[in-house]
TrEMBL record:
<dbReference type="InterPro" id="IPR013216">
    <property type="entry name" value="Methyltransf_11"/>
</dbReference>
<dbReference type="Pfam" id="PF08241">
    <property type="entry name" value="Methyltransf_11"/>
</dbReference>
<dbReference type="InterPro" id="IPR029063">
    <property type="entry name" value="SAM-dependent_MTases_sf"/>
</dbReference>
<protein>
    <recommendedName>
        <fullName>Methyltransferase type 11 domain-containing protein</fullName>
    </recommendedName>
</protein>
<dbReference type="GO" id="GO:0008757">
    <property type="term" value="F:S-adenosylmethionine-dependent methyltransferase activity"/>
</dbReference>
<feature type="domain" description="Methyltransferase type 11">
    <location>
        <begin position="52"/>
        <end position="163"/>
    </location>
</feature>
Length: 277
């Protein structure tokens, strides 16, 4: 993986928690519901649970996993600034929570495609893994499939993998109508096509709330690619979601992009069970 691909998300570090995200309105409530459900099942079994936060960013979901009841979270990201920020945010959260049974989190700089290279990591011991808009940023199908294999190795048999990816409809239709987010067309001005342009890099331009515009390169894959790749590794697809919000639930002064995302599919969410071959 090139340095540019690995570290491009570092441009977000200063704006990450205040940027032009639909996370608080749609993504966070959706994931927190799954975390709580998972935690309740673990509680019913009477066993502590461990989680992987792959591509942890600034630790938003590392903290939410701990809040949901994870006894341990291993958080990783390919960008050193993100890992540093996530560690700081999580340590701040854990201040004052010391004592018997205190949850723990460790942080590592590592690509999703090389997770098992982390020192002292134990394969087959994690109960839950999450990956939020991470795989689309890997540079090739080879890396995506390798990341899926790495995640499967680290999860225990029967463990759960939840991951978010940009919706293919967004990839093919997104314009700058919101003023915040724009997928740029090809260099020749033509639109991207579903099969022909699968896995090809496309530039996403985002204007953060600070006014700082940044550009990220990511990739989209067809539904058939995801289904085939997951099954090849040994994942069983348990659920598929297209989470969305209700514009009526947003405050009257909500940014236009939030209303846009509430009325169009912007994400695909896969919930998978690990059944190693």
């Amino acid at each position: 993986m090139t340095e540019n691909q690995d570290q491009q998300w570092g441009k977000y570090s200063a704006d990450y928690n205040s940027g032009a995200w639909v996370k608080d309105a749609v993504e966070a409530p959706f994931l927190e519901g799954h975390f709580k459900s998972f935690a309740q099942k673990a509680l019913d079994r009477g066993k502590p649970w461990k989680a992987l936060d792959i591509g942890c960013g600034m630790g938003r979901y590392t903290i939410r996993l701990l809040q949901a009841g994870a006894s341990y979270v291993l958080a990783s990201d390919a960008d050193v600034d993100m890992v540093s920020g996530a560690k700081k945010e999580t340590e701040q959260y854990l201040i004052g929570r010391s004592g018997p049974g205190t949850p723990k989190a460790d942080f590592y700089v590592c690509s999703a495609a090389h997770l098992t290279s982390i020192s002292r990591i134990e394969e087959g011991t994690f109960d839950l893994a999450i990956s939020i808009y991470v795989l689309c940023n890997l540079p090739s199908t080879k890396d995506v499939k390798q990341a899926l294999r790495e995640i499967s190795k680290l999860l225990r048999p029967g463990g759960t993998f939840i991951f978010y990816e940009p919706h293919i409809v967004e990839y093919m239709t997104m314009t700058n109508s919101t003023g915040h987010v724009e997928y740029l067309p090809k260099d020749d001005g033509t639109e991207y096509k579903y099969f022909e342009d699968e896995g090809k890099p496309q530039t996403l331009r985002i204007r953060m709330n600070s006014g700082n515009p940044i550009e990220i390169t990511n990739r989209f894959y067809t539904l058939s690619f995801w289904v085939t790749s997951l099954l090849e590794v040994g994942f069983q697809i348990s659920q598929f979601h297209e989470p969305h919000g209700n514009p009526k639930d947003f405050p009257s002064d909500a940014p236009s992009y939030m209303r846009y995302y509430a009325e169009c599919p912007s994400a695909m969410v896969w919930v998978c069970t690990n059944v190693p071959q």
